[in-house]
DNA sequence: CTTAGGCTTGCCGCCATGGAAAATGACTTC
DNA sequence: GAAGTCATTTTCCATGGCGGCAAGCCTAAG
């Protein structure tokens, strides 16, 4: 069981939600995430970059099928490292909520 | 049972910890809280003000006992409103952790 | 009146955040 | 293969939070 560890990078509201969503889904499409969060392309892109720089999120772009209307999709997912960090952060939050920290 | 409600004011790391601590203890001395959090007087004072402005925290200063070494103490505590808000915020965090939000 | 303790405020630098708009990159099309 | 599209990414810029130092205040004690 991972140690509780408060993570400033994850704590920011938008990034916390991103991690929560990615933690449940195996992966999510950039556009879907952006709409779910109700933020702009630019904003999501920057938060994803922040998380990717910490190796918490991985990005993979579908080369797309040859045929016309096949959208190009950017898939986002939490890396194992990201899952651990998120779990540790959640634990830190629980400790705070219970006033154990 | 209160609704889950994400509260930006409470979410800031230092304030989240302040609320967590005050939520458990009935009230805490300014100095103790400052040392527990490991921050400066100024910083704690400003965060407390922020919370007080939202009516989450109440401040009461002991007039002190007449006798000499009786320290003047500033007691801080979570108001009922503050407790509800904190509980609601914690619930919002749980929802995010479980990806229900 | 002067001190001293203890919180509060003003000041200032620094970094985070968000969106609009310009810039990219990777296909499609003609 | 030049031009167009679409889906992000970056740049630019304005706004606002945060922290500490130092000065200010207030209250109680000399």
Automatic annotation (TrEMBL), chains A, B:
Residue ranges annotated for the Winged helix DNA-binding domain, each copy included: 14-96
Xref: Pfam families: HTH_34
InterPro entries (alphabetical): WH-like_DNA-bd_sf, WH_DNA-bd_dom, WH_DNA-bd_sf
Source domain of life: Bacteria
Name of the protein this chain belongs to: Transcriptional regulator
Species this protein is from: Micromonospora endolithica
